Amino acid sequence: MSDKSSLHFNPNIAASPIYVGGASIEAIPKEYGLEDVIKMASNESALGPSPLAVEAVQQAATTLNRYPPMGDEDLRAALAESFGEGFEPDNFFTGNGGCDVLSMTAASLLNPGDECIICRPTFPVYDITARRVGASVVYVDLDPDHFTYDVEAILSAVTERTRLVYICSPNNPTGTTITAQQMETLVNNMPSHVVIIADEVYYHFVTTDDYPDSLAYVREGKNVVVLHSFSKAFGLAGLRLGYAVAPTEIARYLSRARESFHLSKQTLVGGIAGLQDKDHIEKTVALTVNGRNWLHQQLSELGMQVWASQGNFVLFKPPFPPAECSERLLKRGVIVRPMTQFYLPTHLRVTVGLPEENERFIAVLQESLAEMEAEGVPKEVAVEQDGGEFKF
Ligand SMILES: Cc1ncc(COP(=O)(O)O)c(C=O)c1O
């Protein structure tokens, strides 16, 4: 073995936190003896992938000996067509999932020492990708009770060094949204050296009337980048496809960060087919919205603190430590997600499943709560956070 002490590692990469995904079904310990495990931990689609996309991916597999197209012109053309007037292929920038788009965006728009604004609790990938390129993160937290945005506070936190402001709406993990008026205020008052990243990967599931039309800002050429993903309503999380919609100057610039042959042929054709599968999206959205409402009501009836969600998941605060709760649910075959990495060490998030999965989750939650009560499990959560900064 050669000596590694003389190697020079990039300190930003070395120090960057690592994203921890939801546990996979395969990772459940064999000794639990579970045959029928359901995963409600990663905001995937319970209805499964778009059948049209599956067919396209299978067909593309027969040409795996060939390189895929260098670029993504066909996919961007399909995206432009699906959004209609006001958009052209050059308004789109694609990557291997929204995470990859976020990573390339941070690498392209942030330099070491620049600042970005993140509103906790939210999706941890903003933090990770920004720190990885040496940017400083400025937190402007959501209201701790209602998880709403404080637009005035965000605007006051903007400095000469600010480059990006991340707005996640519906926000993962709270399910809350920024209002149309708040977005209008933010966009209209943001200095021109700042780009707003509007992460709207859950937009299909929104039912509130008070939701911003962020794409209109892109059409107007404002410094707004809207993030979408095929992992949610399209049911294609395993395909790894996401994209940003941005004014052409920004989208063209961001596209320079893509690698040669960035997307596989399967991803390209699967995405185009998925876009056309309107029927599948409609079914997925209907199932999700119904399941979300049902879960919200059931969790409230169990006495849990729950937040009204516009996403395909529901956040709740169990009366016992979340790690303990999730472990007991896991032993009963249901995977949910503790929210520590999402800056919420006292909460759990459950992804909407099929109706029978939602029912099973509620039943095993009830059982687990009764068991913990009977055993006298302490209710206090031991919160260990860096710098004691967290106030939720
Ligand atoms: C808010 C938010 N943005 C982006 C993503 C990235 O999704 P993907 O990389 O699967 O497209 C996720 C995934 O859960 C998310 O919750």
What does the model show?
- This protein has helices at residues 11-15, 51-60, 73-83, 98-109, 125-132, 151-157, 180-189, 214-219, 248-255, 265-276, 278-301, 322-331, 355-375, and strands spanning 38-39, 92-95, 115-118, 136-139, 162-168, 195-199, 224-229, 242-245, 305-306, 313-317, 334-335, 337-338, 348-351.
- By secondary structure, it is α/β, with parallel strands linked by helices.
- Strands 2-8-7-6-5-3-4 form a 7-stranded mixed β-sheet, sandwiched between helices. Strands 9-10-13-12 form a 4-stranded antiparallel β-sheet, with helices on one face.
- A hairpin with a 6-residue loop joins β9 and β10 (313-317).
- α6 (151-157) packs parallel to α7 (180-189).
- The relative contact order is 0.16.
- Residues 43, 97-99, 123, 168, 172, 199, 201, 229, 231, 237, 242 line the site of pyridoxal-5'-phosphate (PLP).
Key structural traits:
globular; seven-stranded mixed beta sheet; 37% helix; 13 strands; four-stranded antiparallel beta sheet; 2 domains; single chain; binds pyridoxal-5'-phosphate; alpha/beta; Aspartate Aminotransferase, domain 1; 392 residues; Aspartate Aminotransferase, domain 2
C-alpha Rg (nearest Å): 21 Å
Which ligands accompany this protein?
pyridoxal-5'-phosphate
Classify the beta-strand content into a percent band. Answer: 5-15%
Mean pLDDT: 94
Topology, number of strands: 13
Q: How are the strands ordered across the major sheet?
A: 2-8-7-6-5-3-4
Number of domains: 2
Q: Spans of 5+ residues with little confidence (pLDDT < 50)?
A: 387-392
Gross morphology is globular
**What is the highest CATH level, the class of the largest domain?**
Alpha Beta
Largest sheet: 7 strands, mixed
Tally of alpha and pi helices: 13
Along the chain, the helix and strand elements come as: HEHHEHEHEHEHEHEEHHHEEHEEEH
Question: Termini distance?
Answer: 46 Å
Helix content: 25-40%
Structural class: alpha/beta
CATH topology group of the largest domain: Aspartate Aminotransferase, domain 2
User: What is the CATH superfamily label of the largest domain?
Assistant: Type I PLP-dependent aspartate aminotransferase-like (Major domain)
- The assigned CATH architecture of the largest domain is 3-Layer(aba) Sandwich
